[in-house]
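From the methods appendix. Each design record in this collection lists the tokenized structure first, followed by the designed amino acid sequence. Records were kept in a plain field format so they could be parsed without special tools. The example shown here is representative of the layout used throughout.

RECORD:
FOLD TOKENS (287 positions):
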């Protein structure tokens, strides 16, 4: 719980240990998924086993790379929300990440993430930016001059893990054609808490809310559709939602906030129950 408040105050894009999630009821699905719920994450994961040479301890995390495309959404505050109060404005991230699960300390969950995030300003306008994070360090926002995203854009992101402390991130704005890529090193590579763990890996595809004080009146967002979802293990084997998939519901104050729904083996949607018919189209400036 300490981590959750750290997250709210410091804007860490955090995946707390999987243990924080409570198993939800199993829902009927063609892809044998089970749903988990958390108060701040909604999305999907693919668990991938560590493959190892018999008699040889694995040296590198199970997953080598994870990729997906998604649309950067808009959000819309409740009509009576007082947006001059920053507590009524919220931030929501869309991201992919790579996690290893057999950590020396069960409280550790180092992982690499890359994504977009949307903010709301005092006038209810949605703004967006891209970021990279090597948890447990805070995120590094990408300056707009380096890589610009806006609500309504479609992005592609690829994260790679080379070693337990090094990786790479590629991002492309599929609307503007702008690309940005960089090698990434854990912020504190000497600290064991930053070494991506071995054991089975988890490819992550999430929408995450920074919900400030008011947990009832969160804005709605238009559907975020993840497509071309995939992961590659250390030996070059490709994975999608056909094996090892799980979907996570975001439930806050007993109220569904962001719900995933599978589309097919390489795509799914995360929707806001109050906004699932809203397209944000009236806010488009690019048409
Ligand atoms: C992963 O490993 C677990 C435990 O060894 C096994 O039950 C499961 O079938 C494996 N999954 C795949 C996709 O190989
Ligand atoms: C919000 O709108 C007011 C009035 O048009 C303007 O003065 C202000 O700069 C706007 N705020 C932002 C963050 O754009
Ligand atoms: C993903 O991983 C595979 C296997 O390690 C590698 O061959 C491929 O180049 C990687 N793809 C990207 C886009 O990084
Ligand atoms: C999903 O993964 C399975 C198993 O690796 C593969 O056979 C299938 O072609 C993949 N589907 C797509 C649409 O990539
Ligand atoms: C958003 O996704 C939900 C769940 O799949 C769907 O019912 C709804 O029609 C979608 N909304 C739009 C505007 O496409």
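DESIGN:
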């Amino acid at each position: 719980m300490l981590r959750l408040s750290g997250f709210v105050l410091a804007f860490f894009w955090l995946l707390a240990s999987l243990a924080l999630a409570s198993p939800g009821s199993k829902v009927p699905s063609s892809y044998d998924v089970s749903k988990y719920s958390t108060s701040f994450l909604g999305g999907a994961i693919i668990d991938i086993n560590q493959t190892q040479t018999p008699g040889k301890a694995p040296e590198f995390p199970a997953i080598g790379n994870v990729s997906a495309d998604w649309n950067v959404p808009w959000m819309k505050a409740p009509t009576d929300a007082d947006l001059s109060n920053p507590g009524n404005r919220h931030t929501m991230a869309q991201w992919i990440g790579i996690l290893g699960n057999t950590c020396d300390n069960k409280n550790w969950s180092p992982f690499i993430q890359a994504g977009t995030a949307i903010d709301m300003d005092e006038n209810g306008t949605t703004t967006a930016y891209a970021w990279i994070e090597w948890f447990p360090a805070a995120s590094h926002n990408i300056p707009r001059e380096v890589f610009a995203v806006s609500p309504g854009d479609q992005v592609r992101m690829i994260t790679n893990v080379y070693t337990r402390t090094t990786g790479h991130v590629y991002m492309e704005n599929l609307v503007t054609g702008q690309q940005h890529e960089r090698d990434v090193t854990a912020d504190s590579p000497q600290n064991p808490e930053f070494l991506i763990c071995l054991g089975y890996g988890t490819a992550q595809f999430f929408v995450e809310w920074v919900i400030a004080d008011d947990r009832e009146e969160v804005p709605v967002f238009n559907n975020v559709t993840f497509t071309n979802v995939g992961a590659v293990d250390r030996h070059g084997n490709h994975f999608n939602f056909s094996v090892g998939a799980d979907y996570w519901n975001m439930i806050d104050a007993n109220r569904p906030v962001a719900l995933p729904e599978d589309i097919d083996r390489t795509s799914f949607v995360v929707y806001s129950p109050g906004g699932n018919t809203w397209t944000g189209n009236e806010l488009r400036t690019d048409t």
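APPENDIX NOTE: The first strand starts at residue 22 and ends at 23.
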